[in-house]
Amino acid sequence: MALMSRLYPRGPVNLGDRVRELPSDGSVPNFPEWQWLHTPGHSVGHVSLFRERDRTMIAGDAFVTTKQESLFAALTQRPELHGPPAYYTTNWDDARESVRKLAALRPAAVGTGHGKPIAGAEVVDMLDLLARDFDTIARPEHGIYVDRPAA
């Protein structure tokens, strides 16, 4: 996956009027029970969504439920918690703090940008482990943004 990243678009995409700024109060337009949380790291403007009523979280790529850098894991989709995709995470310190913020919400079910949704008691334990040992589990040993964030 890292080798393929050279083929990914590098410039901005003009979405025109299809994108609007989220309300500063954390609400999500047209989804009154949901709140958005700024969870930078994978990207500067990354957000995750959370619904308190049933503790459901949409984490985007703040963390994922498959090891996206592994072709085998991506094909088998065996549910397991990992940090954000290493081939395009621009600030590992922010990513670690975002995972800690999301773990503190104690979600009962999570959906992510890569991998299958996971629900059940083990979600909290898995997310706590990832938050506690993020630098060992998620942060790669080398790469362009490992030691310094994207400028």
Keywords:
single chain; 151 residues; alpha+beta; Metallo-beta-lactamase, Chain A; 6-stranded mixed beta sheet; 4 helices; 6 strands; 17% strand
What is the end-to-end distance? 23 Å
- Portion of residues within helices: 10-25%
Total discrete domains: 1
Q: Report Rg.
A: 15 Å
The low-confidence parts are none
Mean of residue pLDDT values: 89
CATH structural fold name: Metallo-beta-lactamase, Chain A
Number of strands: 6
| Class of secondary structure makeup | alpha+beta
Please write the string of helix (H) and strand (E) elements.
EEEEHHEEHH
Overall shape: globular
- What would you give as the CATH superfamily? Ribonuclease Z/Hydroxyacylglutathione hydrolase-like
Number of helices: 4
What profile does the largest beta sheet have? 6 strands, mixed
Strand content: 15-25%
Under the CATH scheme, the architecture is: 4-Layer Sandwich
Structural commentary:
It is a single chain. The chain has helices at residues 71-76, 92-103, 122-132, 134-137, and strands spanning 27-28, 31-38, 47-51, 56-60, 109-112, 118-119. The protein is α+β, with helices and mostly antiparallel strands. It has a single domain, classed as Metallo-beta-lactamase, Chain A (4-Layer Sandwich).
